[in-house]
Amino acid sequence: MIPANTHIWIVAGLTDLRRGFVGLSAMVQTALEQNPFNGHVFVFRGKRGDLIKLLWFDGDGLCLFAKRLERGRFVWPKVDQGTIALTRAQLAMLLEGIDWRRPERTAEPRAMV
């Protein structure tokens, strides 16, 4: 759904997730000094940690996605401000509630020789 060359940014710190399109895009412009219409994905987390919102401009308009975990919390960086870049794979892990910072293999790859 998100194009391969899209930059994905975690917005560090906690966000009041009562904000919608206008409030979150204003936060991107003022606090992050970014353009919310540049096609990047911006990920915000609320205080409790079980809800995140993603803001993305798909070329036609702003999209706002939300996900709430029934159990557990979204893993979030300790920094209070700024942004942290994610890959698409890390975003997928984040959305599943997996610790995207240190994913662990279930088994080490072996040589087939």
Uncertain spans, ≥5 residues at pLDDT below 50? none
Number of domains: 1
Number of helices: 2
Strand order of the largest sheet: 4-3-2-1-5
Order of helices and strands: EHEEEEH
Overall body shape? globular
Using the CA coordinates, give the radius of gyration. 15 Å
Quaternary state, please? Answer: single chain
Structural class of the helix and strand makeup? alpha+beta
Task: Give a verbal description of the structure.
The protein has 113 residues and is an alpha+beta fold. The protein has one domain (8-95). The protein has two helices and five strands, in the order E-H-E-E-E-E-H. It has helices at residues 21-30, 88-95, and strands spanning 8-11, 41-45, 51-57, 62-68, 83-86. It has a five-stranded mixed beta sheet with strand order 4-3-2-1-5. Strand 2 and strand 3 form a beta hairpin. The longest helix has 10 residues, at 21-30. The protein is globular and about 55 Å long. The termini are far apart. 19% of the residues are buried. The mean pLDDT is 87.
Quick synopsis:
The protein contains two helices and five strands; from the N terminus they run βαββββα.
Write the topology of this structure:
Blueprint: E1 8-11, H1 21-30, E2 41-45, E3 51-57, E4 62-68, E5 83-86, H2 88-95
List its traits:
113 residues; alpha+beta; five-stranded mixed sheet; 5 strands; 16% helix; 24% strand; globular
